Amino acid sequence: MLSSRKSNKEIVAAIIELRNQTDFKLSEILKAAEIAKSVYHYWKIHLKTTDQKDSELVQAIKNIVTTHKGRTGYRRVTVELKLMGYRVNHKKVLRLMKENKLLCVKFKHRNRAYKSYKGQLGRIAKNKINRRFISDRPYQKLLTDVTQFSILNGRTKLYMSTVMDVCTKEIISYSISESPDMNFVLESLDKTIDAIPELPYRTTIHSDQGWHYQNKKWIKRLTENNIFQSMSRKGNCLDNSPMENFFAILKQEMFYGDSSFDESAKEITDYIHYYNHIRRK
Known about the structure:
About 45% of the residues lie in helices and about 15% in strands. By secondary structure, it is of the alpha/beta class. It has two domains: about 10-100, no CATH class; about 140-275, Nucleotidyltransferase, domain 5, CATH 3.30.420. The chain is elongated, with a radius of gyration of 28 Å. It comes from Macrococcus hajekii. GO terms for molecular function: nucleic acid binding. It holds the Pfam family rve.
């Protein structure tokens, strides 16, 4: 006899499994389990409906995971599902993702940050942004920084200079190089200048106190294009936290490490398109 401590739902689920494995008659099983036939058929229909719903839900989760290339954790998957019209709890999403081996495994990589500060080599600008990382005007406040990637198992370095719009959180421009020289940083700045339309207000670009941003060439380029310069305080990464946060997300979610320079550059390009157009901020 099945345990009386089990609910009717659990007992019927056990009966269905038993019938799939043996040739016992239903009437004999129901008599032994002390379950009415009507109760059995009620829960059989209910369990079938639940299985169908779960099957649809799992497929929706698989589609989300595929779209985001396995970069999405269960909480973000839950948000996506709710936006699609599903009424589901994050605990159930976590369970289904565990059962179907869909959990995100990208958030394990760590990489040393690139340090471009070499002391005061030029002009240090005032912190005009002052952690006010909110704007309702595109191109009003821009953030920039340089980061490095260790590729080919640490034997080679790839450097990336990036400019972000505070309003849209979009990556406006970036440049990639094997060496963190001045031209490489100016390349991303020039791309940004080309992208800025005519505005009724001035643009401010914020950076840390890295040597690139103290350089006369950088300052001249900003002056020529009527762009304000802003700098973080010395050694204070929170003064440029959205940019730092983007680099952290990029390094956690993107495949890289043992790829060649060209392969890594392509992966970065693909990811930035994904970040700008698909990933929810």
